[in-house]
Amino acid sequence: MMRALLTAATGMEAQQVNIDTIANNLANVNTTAFKRSKANFHDLLYQTLRAPGQSSTTGTVVPGGIQVGTGVKLSSVDKMFTEGAVQVTGNEMDLMIEGDGFFRVQKDDGQIVYTRAGHFTKDNTGRVVTNDGYPVIPEVTVPVEAKNLHVGYDGTVTVKVNGETQDLGQILIASFINPTGLVSLGGNYYSPSRASGEPVVGVPAQNGMGRIGQSQLESSNVNIVEEMVNMITGQRAYEISSKVISTGDQMLQTTTNVR
Q1: Are residues 212 and 92 in the same domain?
Q2: In the chain, at which end, N or C, are there fewer CB atoms within 10 A of the end residue's CB?
Q3: Which residues, given as ranges, of the chain have pLDDT below 50?
Q4: Which residues face 167 on adjacent strands?
Q5: From residue 245, how far is each of 11, 16, 73, 235, 238 by CA, in Å?
Q6: What is the total count of domains within the chain?
Q7: pLDDT at position 249
Q8: 207 is in which domain, residue-wise?
Q9: Rounded to 5 degrees, what are φ and ψ at 225?
Q10: DSSP label at 43?
C-alpha cells in the first residue's frame, strides 16, 4: 500500500479533532466565563532513507538526507485562560474575577472545585451558592433581613441590617501555576491535576491575585471571527488530505491496470 494513503488518513483524523474542538468553542460562545480550547499537533516519526551528514562513496559528507514523514498526530487540546469581556448585569449577586484566579465551591460529595463563572444566588438558608447549589468556600450566609449586599475588591462581603453595616466574611480565590493543566469537569467547573499544580488560596487583589468585580460577569473568551477562520482552514486541510487519498487510489488503480 502507498505510504501516502496512511499519511493522509492521519491528516484527516487530526483535522476531525480540530473541527470538533472549534465546534465546541462556537457552541459555548455565550457561556459565562467559558474558556476556548485549541488543538495542537505534531508530526510523526520519519522514515530515514539516508541520514543527513552521511558519508558518500567518495568519502565526502552528504549535505542533506532523505527523510519521509508519516503524518500528523494530536499532541494536546489546551484551554486558553485569557480573560473574557466584562458583562455588566446590575445583579448584586453576580461576581467577576478581574485578573487571575478561580472561585472555590464545594460539591455535594465534599470535593472542592474551581470556576470562573460568578453567577451566584442564595439558597433557602441564605448561603451564597452556584446555580447547581454548590456553596462558595468559605461559606457566606446572607441574613433574611439583609439589604444592600456589597462585595469589595478584596472579596469582603458586607450588608446593611437594620441600618447597620454587618460583615459576613470574605470570599477567597485560588490560582494555579499552570491553569492549562486543570481538568475540565463540565458545568464551568475545574479540578486540579498533577499538571496544574496545587491551588494557591489567597485574598483577592493581593499577591498577584485578581480582584472581585460586583454586578458583572465574565463573558466567554471565544472570538467568533477567529473560530470561523480556523474552521475554514481546518475544513480545507481535511479536503486536501481526502484528495491525497483519492489521488493515491487512482495511482494504485493505474498500477494494477499495467499489463
Answers
A1: yes
A2: C
A3: none
A4: 158
A5: 10, 16, 17, 16, 11
A6: 2
A7: 84
A8: 86-218
A9: -65, -45
A10: E
Q: How far is CA 37 from the centre of its chain?
A: 4
- What CA–CA distance (Å, rounded) separates 115 from 33? 8
Q: Is the peptide bond before 199 cis (omega within 30 degrees of 0)?
A: no
Q: Are residues 123 and 200 in the same domain?
A: yes
90 and 205 share one domain = yes
Total-model pTM: 0.87
Q: Are residues 55 and 118 in the same domain?
A: no
pLDDT digits (tens, 9 = 90+) for 47-70: 888 888 777 667 777 777 788 888
Question: Are residues 93 and 211 located together in one domain of the fold?
Answer: yes
Asked whether residue 108 falls in the same domain as residue 171, the answer is: yes
User: Does residue 95 share a domain with residue 27?
Assistant: no
Share of the chain above pLDDT 90, in %: 78
pLDDT value at residue 52: 80
Rounding to the nearest 10 degrees, give the CA dihedral for residues 174, 177, 180, 182. -50
Q: Is the dihedral of CA 67, 72, 77, 83 positive or negative?
A: positive
C-alpha cell read off for 27: 457552541
